Each structure stands twice: as C-alpha cells, then as structure tokens.
C-alpha cells in the first residue's frame, strides 16, 4: 500500500476510534479488572500485540499519585474511568508531575464538600466536542500537506517516496508541537510547579 493511502486510512481510523468518548462505559461500579477491560475496549486503537494500553498497575499508580480519584471500596465508577481516559491522553505529552499539577484542582473540586461538584463526564464530553471540531479538517489538511510536499519535491526534480514520508512525518510532529508548547506554557503559568 502506498504511504498516501496508508496515511489517509490511518487518519480515518483515528477519527473513528482515536478518541474514546466513554459511551460504552457502564454506569455501574466496576472492579479493577473490569475497569481495565472496559478502558482497553474504549482504547482498542492503541492496542499493541493484542494487549490494551491500560493495566491494573497503571490505575493503581495513577491513583497513588493522585491523578485519578481512589476507588470506592474496591470499586470504580464511570467517573473513575473518565479520569483515567484523561490521564491516558495527557501522558502522551506530559510528565507525571505535570499531570498531577493539572489534575489536582479537578480532583479537589471533584471530592469537595464545599464547592459545586465537578461533573467530569460533562467536562470530558466538552473536551471531545472541541477536539472533534478541530478534527473536521484533518483529512483535508493531510491531503493538502501531501500534495504540497509532492509539489515541493517535483519542483526540485524528485519523486522520492522516502523524502515525501520524512517531510510529512516532520510536518505532522512540528504542527503538534505548537499545541503542546502552548499547553505546557498554560500549565506552567496557571498550575506552577511548587517544587521549583
């Protein structure tokens, strides 16, 4: 399969399955094994060699480091699963310390007896909605990127697929770095590292 077809197919697959919307997470309490199974089903696109990306150890570790709320007894709710999905997506860009800083105010509000309680499911739904809006043009931007790269190389007398792929990968990474840079700056400005 040519890289253009592979890239388009992969982009379409991501738009279908890349964002776990949490719709299939049941509104019942789950034991940790059930939570792992449920989350791995939601995140099936990220499975490698048949293993899902979420493990019991991750959930325990993230609970211990106060990145998700602790279980109620030995059971987890849909809210716990949503918190875990947030942490899963954040860990691709942020360190554990950064995730802790970002999650701290959410967890404080979530368990506060004084503030209005945090509706994490509604918050997560809004995040998904905003990301979906940005995704609407992704396939068109990808095609535009590939055509622009082909034209750039053709103007230089080249039709080398490897050069096209390297330029496309680098373009995608550098574009994502812009948003990551902004996210890190916002985190540092409004949720500073108190240890420094």
Brief digest:
This protein has eight helices and no strands. With 196 residues, the chain is mainly α. The chain is globular.
Distance between the termini: 50 Å
- What profile does the largest beta sheet have? none
Q: Which word captures the global form?
A: globular
- Tell how many strands the DSSP assignment holds: 0
Helix content: 55-70%
Average of per-residue pLDDT values:
92
H-E string: HHHHHHHH
Radius of gyration: 20 Å
Domain count: the total is 1
How much strand content do the residues show? Answer: under 5%
**Distinct helical segment count:** 8
Unreliable sequence segments: none
Supply the helix-strand structural class.
Answer: mainly alpha
List the helices and strands and how they pair.
Layout: H1 3-17, H2 32-42, H3 56-64, H4 78-90, H5 96-110, H6 120-135, H7 138-155, H8 161-190
Helix pairs in contact: 1-7, 7-8
Give an overview in words:
With 196 residues, the protein is mainly alpha-helical. It has one domain. The chain is built from 8 helices and no strands. It has helices at 3-17, 32-42, 56-64, 78-90, 96-110, 120-135, 138-155, 161-190. The mean pLDDT is 92.
